[in-house]
Amino acid sequence: MTALPPFGLLAVTVLVIAAGLAFSRPGRRPAAVPRVAEAAAALSLLLALAGVAHLVAAGPATSMILDGPLALGVRLDAISATMTVLVAFVGWIVVRYTRTYVDGEAREGLFHGFMLATLAAVLLLVQAGTLLVLVAAFALVGLGLRHLLLFYPDRPEARQAATKFTLVWGMGDAALVIAATGLWIAFGTAEIAALTQAAASGLPLAAKVAVGFLVLAALFKTAAFPLHGWLTEVMEAPTPVSALLHAGIINGGGFLLIRLAEVMQASPGAMAALVLLGGLTALFGAVVMLTQSAVKTALAWSTVAQMGFMILQCGLGLWTLALLHIVAHSLYKAHAFLASGTAVEAVNAIRKPGPVAVPGLVAVGRSFALAITLYALVAAGFSLVAGDKSAQALALGAMLIFGVAYLVAQGMADTAPTALTWRMLAASAAATLAYFGFQALAAALWGAALPPPPDPGALELALIVLAVASFGLVAFAQALFPLWAHHPASAGLRVHLANGLYLNALLDRLIGGFRTAKPL
User: Fold this and answer.
1) What is the DSSP string of 296-341?
2) pLDDT digits (tens, 9 = 90+) for 355-364
3) N or C: which end of the chain has fewer CB within 10 A?
């Protein structure tokens, strides 16, 4: 174990100091606070990059700040370094955007304060070296986000979203506390590095129970089905809050699983639960997303689907791909929220396309057969060069290629122009090559810090087949949707899906007895 300079903690400290200045000037046009906030965010990014540079120079290392029975510390390795730079970068961009977005608001200084404080809590979370720091950081993130959701306290919808978020996030915190206690009882340590090493020898009963609560905590933190409602209602908060959500907050459940990957993988039952619940959330979110007309609401449902897919990747033991998913999704979705307004204007300004080619049953069947054949050929080629791929990785690639097959189907419709057909085929080939290329990149970056996928048993193989078949069936039905979109039954189904099958309304009824969050 090599001690490294605590650049990560310095980044947290800088943000906390800047947040304190912002809290001291909570009102409109708070003098230099917006400029100080942006400078603090930029400095935190530079400190995060400095930490990565030292890590690369020193090799894999862990930096403990305070030793003892409940060692309060931070951990610096390939995983935490990646997340620290990601969170600091997205946070800096969001803070820059915030300067203009909230300029002139009555509580402008207060908003900057909570943005910086929440960002500091997330940075502490992704660097946690012990369970104590991990639990405390999750609680602080929830507290900061609740205040941000209530920035417009006069909006009943905002108070309802904050109440729902507080309930679900608090349930996740409670599950995490129970899990941390169980792991400490089972292994006699709260240090994450020691826990992952001890899990290689098997899980005692207390640890098995703890892993079950870790699954619950991860599902609560990622707004998984059926407690996803608060995420689709955060549109009541300012746009920077929606973007900040993707800087390690909504991804926090996935990071929790990746950070404790060795512990999770020692429990086949927990991994199976992640596959089932993650796959269900991904399919549900993706289908509902297609029925949304509002841009930001559609993006929120897309996040529900993406978080489900990330949980599915963790359940399959594809830890490096799950971490790559967090990085890519955070960058893409933060940009999508910040650019949502200008994107609507740009779409309205362009010339509307003419009739869209509708593929028939035969064309859809050909497109899926072609995409799967192409995928099999590329997979065989990569296996010859880089070695055999795991069953989990091949299955995940098949699920992704079904989405490509949907695009190819548009190009293979009878009325589609030839140029479109060739363009879609080229896109299919590029997507297939990209999947295996990024898989190799993720393995090179984080493979040494994470366990390889386990050899699948009978249960795991059955779940893999079920997941692939489910994704394939949904993609096939989606490709055929234009053929029966005008049927009266499809119109009714669309209404039900647009409302998320009313699961959020049921949750509202269940928490109706709780007092709506008070204005802050």
Assistant:
1) HHHHHHHHHHHHHHHHHHHHTT-HHHHHHHHHHHHHHHHHHHHTHH
2) 555 666 777 7
3) N
